[in-house]
Predict the structure.
Amino acid sequence: MIRKTLLGAIALAACALAHAQAFPEKSITFIVPFAAGSATDQLARALGQGVTLETKQQVVIDNKPGANAFIGAQAAARAPKDGYTVFITTNTTHAANEHLFHKLPYDPVKDFEPVGLLSKGGQILVVNNNLPVNNVQELIKYAKANPGKLSFGSGSSSSRIAGELFKQMTGSFIVNIPYRSNPPAVTDLIGGQIHLMFTDMATGLPQVKGGKVKALGVSTAKRIPLANEIPTIAESGVKGYESTFWFAAYVPAGTPAPVVARLNEILARANKSQPVTTFYSSVGFEPLGGSPEDLRKFQAAETQKWGKIVTAAGIQKE
């Protein structure tokens, strides 16, 4: 009996390995929990081009925005465990959400297998052109003189926490307006429905360069070379302010380890392909990498870090 069980296990392992070596044999779907045009979406599309160059298989982008990225996370967790559905996501779903909500409809650890880190980036503080401020100190002064009259949009947990941290560190009262994703929030910012927001460079910088919004600062500890003329929020008087975010790839829990390893190889090479490096250089993102286990450890550390940030910002769970 033991011999049969052992032989069966060996046969299954051999089949899984053979499947991984042939993978992929058809198109792959990238689930993105944010809207088209968001930084995650833009990265997924560039990464998809890189995967196609690497494997000759097409990549389909499936945007599932809304409900604080719950919709996309649930869909990815419930997908077939064959490696053909990959979740391209951020710290929103896998480090921050559990500190912002009492109950998640998915488990960021138990429901997913880590594949690999992709990149990290910073955010940009942008305001409506008609707001009578031109730098961070003027914004703080205006917000304190008009408590509760200003609003900031947030289309992700990273965006929201950046705003809440700014409020906490400056002692200002600015109302948060949640959105399904950052692009529609930027649209409302331009139209004057909201006054300011913290958004990823991929979404915000083109609007700044187009003269549609004003940039007051970046959320990173150092200036971003791509937009070196924009000061950091920390150097603008909010000492110690920093808020960044990261991107990573996951598959549903239970996906065979050889398939996960094969995906890690494919995505690592795609992450260095011309479409992706061009995208990174256009938005100032820093490419990352590593093994599935590296991502597992990184996620655990980031979850603790984001918990401390949420607590420090005084954000109450919803």
